[in-house]
């Protein structure tokens, strides 16, 4: 698949939006299948393995938050500067992102190795569950710089309006993970089975192979993004421009990881089976959100380019076109999961208890797939405009003012069913609030020239 240079500043909205979004949706599908593959094979080790990889995913989300936060800031910065005709600044930002990623990755990996025992004991893990979590994460922490470099590199291409290369990179990682997971988890011939450690090693090696592919394209073959680190000069203003969106984006995603930790803590009263069920439920969330996330990223790219070019009315059209498309694309997942929750829960559940709890969760949570379109498209637009603080406040609202309180109260009043109802109720209110907020930002700030981020 090749991607022609898109005109993001004029003409119809739907065609360039979908040209950007579809490769990203496919890439996110590969990413999700990557996680599915890990969980599928690890689930064959038992419910403890499923719960362990679910709780360990909290830490993985922090790594993803750091990498995608820097990447989103980079994406927004590149898009806005290209729209304003400042190509040299965009290239310089891409080179700065490598240095930032390596520093953050090394620091996070080291800190994670030192604190993982205390962290997961505080979340209620113990015994075999804690042992499995540490076996998994001790290997993944070593690959933290690889994670960050890969995510940032992908966003260099996206900021330039090329979303096909990131799709190819994710396909490469997924194919190698499919090959390595069963070999390293269960063993074959001279390769010993490593259990949950094998899943972590397969993940790290697969992403490392894909990163090598990415760097070869970026440094030697890519046009117009080809980088020359030999001419690199450090510039604090570029770092500030990246972090203007990147820090709030990272903070928002780290808060999302924290919220999952808090939700696991709330579920502690219902046992490890409830935690395994929640792991299954948010696995399907990730699948259902794929098309919306692709649309949201396309909104960031198109909004950034048009904001740089001062095409304000086009920005509004981009948002509402994307919102309609995203909601329609999420609708099939809502309907299918609502009709057959037991079937989907049974793919991962290894015991009748987990099957029953996760099926009930999926039935209640499925309507939230469509509602997520409002939040994700709004965040995408905020990022494209360089409004880092607004996207962070929206995330804080969703997590700490709505989701965590609603699930806590719901679980106290109606048991585990109330926990799932709390999540759905929070999603409904979040959608209504962020749409109102976007309307205010567009009409009372953007069109009056009160937003200046370049």
How would you portray this structure in words?
The chain has 454 residues and is mainly α. It has one domain. Helices cover 82% and strands 0% of the residues. Helix 1 packs antiparallel against helix 10, helix 2 packs antiparallel against helix 3 and helix 3 packs antiparallel against helix 4. The mean pLDDT is 82.
- Number of distinct helices: 16
Overall shape: globular
Helicity, as a percent range: over 70%
- The termini sit apart by 33 Å
By DSSP, the count of extended strands is 0
Main beta sheet strand tally, sense and closure: none
Summing up helix and strand content along with how strands pair, one would put the structural category as mainly alpha
Number of domains: 1
User: In terms of per-residue confidence, which ranges show pLDDT below 50 for 5 or more consecutive residues?
Assistant: none
Radius of gyration: 21 Å
How would you sum up this structure in a few lines?
The protein is mainly α and 454 residues long. The protein is 82% helix and 0% strand.
Summarize the SSE layout with pairings.
Blueprint: H1 14-43, H2 47-83, H3 87-122, H4 127-140, H5 144-159, H6 164-186, H7 196-221, H8 236-266, H9 272-288, H10 290-308, H11 312-339, H12 341-346, H13 352-365, H14 368-384, H15 388-414, H16 416-446
Helix pairs in contact: 1-6, 1-7, 1-10, 2-3, 2-4, 2-5, 2-8, 2-9, 2-10, 3-4, 3-5, 4-7, 5-6, 5-7, 6-7, 8-15, 9-13, 10-11, 10-14, 11-14, 13-16, 14-15, 14-16, 15-16
């Amino acid at each position: 698949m090749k991607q022609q240079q898109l005109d993001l500043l004029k003409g119809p909205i739907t065609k360039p939006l979908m040209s950007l979004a579809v490769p990203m949706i496919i890439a996110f599908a590969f990413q999700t299948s990557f996680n599915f593959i890990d969980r599928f094979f690890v689930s064959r080790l038992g419910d403890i393995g499923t719960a362990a990889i679910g709780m360990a995913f909290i830490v993985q989300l922090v790594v993803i938050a750091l990498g995608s936060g820097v990447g989103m800031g980079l994406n927004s910065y590149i898009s806005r500067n290209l729209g304003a005709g400042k190509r040299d600044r965009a290239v310089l930002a891409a080179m700065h992102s490598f240095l930032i990623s390596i520093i953050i990755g090394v620091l996070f990996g080291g800190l994670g190795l030192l604190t993982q025992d205390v962290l997961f004991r505080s979340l209620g893990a113990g015994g075999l569950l804690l042992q499995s979590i540490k076996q998994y994460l001790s290997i993944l922490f070593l690959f933290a710089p690889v994670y960050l470099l890969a995510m940032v590199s992908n966003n260099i291409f996206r900021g330039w309006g090329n979303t096909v290369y990131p799709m190819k990179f994710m396909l490469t990682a997924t194919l190698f993970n499919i090959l390595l997971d069963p070999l390293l988890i269960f063993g074959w011939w001279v390769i010993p089975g490593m259990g949950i450690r094998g899943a972590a090693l397969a993940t790290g090696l697969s992403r490392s192979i894909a990163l090598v592919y990415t760097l070869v394209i970026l440094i030697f073959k890519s046009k117009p993004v080809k980088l020359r680190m030999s001419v690199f000069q450090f510039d604090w203003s570029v770092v500030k421009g990246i972090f203007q969106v990147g820090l709030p984006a990272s903070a928002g995603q780290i808060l999302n990881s924290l919220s999952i930790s808090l939700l696991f803590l709330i579920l502690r009263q219902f046992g490890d089976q409830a935690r395994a069920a929640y792991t299954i439920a948010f696995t399907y969330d990730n699948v259902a959100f794929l098309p919306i996330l692709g649309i949201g990223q396309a909104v960031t790219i198109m909004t950034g380019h048009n904001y740089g070019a001062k095409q304000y009315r086009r920005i509004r059209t981009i948002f509402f076109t994307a919102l309609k498309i995203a909601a329609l694309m999420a609708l099939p997942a809502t309907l299918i999961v609502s009709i057959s929750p037991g079937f989907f829960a049974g793919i991962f559940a290894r015991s009748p208890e987990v099957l029953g709890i996760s099926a009930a969760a999926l039935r209640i949570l499925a309507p939230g797939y469509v509602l997520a379109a409002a939040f994700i498209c709004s965040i995408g637009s905020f990022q494209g405009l360089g409004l880092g603080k607004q996207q962070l406040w929206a995330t804080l609202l969703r997590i700490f003012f709505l989701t965590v309180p609603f699930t806590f109260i719901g679980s106290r009043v109606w048991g585990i069913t109330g926990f799932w109802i709390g999540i759905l109720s929070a999603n409904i209110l979040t959608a209504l609030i962020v749409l109102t907020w976007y309307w205010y930002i567009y009409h009372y700030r953007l069109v009056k020239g009160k937003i200046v981020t370049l």
